[in-house]
Each structure stands twice: as structure tokens, then as C-alpha cells.
Sequence to fold (274 residues):
Amino acid sequence: MTDRHFALYRSPPAAMAGLAVKGIGRHRVSRAIVGRKLPDFAVVLVEDGQGWLETKAAGRQAVVAPSLFWLFPGRTHSYGPDDAGWSERWALFTGAMTRDFTRMRLIAEQAPVVAVSDLGGMQHLFDRLHAELSLDTALAHAEAAATLHGLVARAARQAAGASAGETGPDFQLVIEALRARAIEPLDLEAFAAQFAMSPATLRRKFAQHTGLSPKAFQLRIRLDLAKQLLVAGDSPVESVAAAVGIQDAFYFSRLFRDRESCSPSEFRRRHKRG
Fold:
């Protein structure tokens, strides 16, 4: 990309309600933005320089390039570089999928600043967004949404990697330990103690790495196993529930319907082979 400074705004098609990119830009910044609110989500990539970001949810945080930070719609924020200025790229985005990003903690108000370990990769994604929005076709808008989704995932992966580096041993071992005993009753305090953690620390790290609490993760594993059992055999629903560690068949059926939008029996009819 040859342009050093630009701003491009688009009104995406109404059909792009799931995720839509509404603007992209690149600037050299020398002055702070103070007390602003945006109607959409934004991501700001700081390519060089350093400064600060201040929000109500996270307080005042240092921003040191290369890094990026997330801005949330309707939230007052202030940010800016030190006296030397910084170079930034930004993108505006919106859509129902942003709720999944926040629920899964791929982006978090309490931790908006992400250290970037792969600046070239991030710059490439911003270049793609610019190229796609420049075309302004339905296909290009769909491609821009996919690129933005990839940018969110890449940033979340780097944030999780930085967190793992700060916390010592690979947290994947903890995740796999809970996966292996998912059908057993969970004593969270005892489980956390096995890994020299408090329950609060375990919950926080589980949310960082999986987007779920330990109990929500356990329930997801149980219900995924239940789906396999339902499709693979003809055991009564009560037996399937017990096999995944849920003794109350009515409670199991309610949980299953809430997750799959159908009953266990309906799921079996839809997916059973032969």
C-alpha cells in the first residue's frame, strides 16, 4: 500500500448484519483524542511510537508499539501518543457477531490493549480490508467481514499467548485435565489446588483461553459427548444423560434443548445414520 494517510467509510448492505466493516484508515497522529464516543466498534493498530489509552472499564493503560486496542460503541474513551507521535491504522465494524466476540472474550473491555507479536501479519490484514472496501461490492463487503473476523482471531491468539507467557506452565494442560474428567462432579476448589491456583484464578484463566467458565466448559464437553452417544446407539435418553454425568433426565433434556434448539430425541432422528 502506497498511501500513508487515508480514511475510507462505507455503508455496508443491510444483508451484512452479522458482521460488517464500516470504515478503514491510516494516519500519523500527534494529538490526543479526548472524551469521544463512537457508534461502532473500532480497532486501532499502533505501528510505531507509544502513548496511552483511557477507558472507564480498564482505566489508563500504556500503549507501546506494536500493539492494538479495541474501542467499544457508546463508551467514552481517550487516547493519544506521547510528544513524538505515532502511526496508526484503524477499522470500524459492527454487527450481531460482535456479541460473540465479547461473550467469548475475544475482545474485552477490561483488557483492550493487546501487544502485537506479528506486526507484518496485522498490517497485511489491514491492507486487505482497505482493498476490499475500496471495491465496494457485495462480495467485497463479505470478504471484508471475513478478514475482520480473522483479525479478531489473530489478536485474541496473540493475547492468549502473552497471557500464557506471563503465567508460566502451558494452561492447555489444565484444559485437557478438565476435558478428561468432564463427566465427573467438579470440585472447583480441589481442581484448582491441583494446579496451585485459587478458584478465582482458574476461572479467569479459563475465560482467557476458552471464553468459558470451567463449569460451562465442562457442560459443553458433556453435551457434545451426549450427541455422539445419541447418534451412535439406541440407548434411552435417561441412559445417555447418566453416561455424561447428569442424573436428572428432565434437566438434561432442558439443557440439551437450550443448546441445540431441539430435544435429544429430535437430534437423534435428524442425525442418526442407517
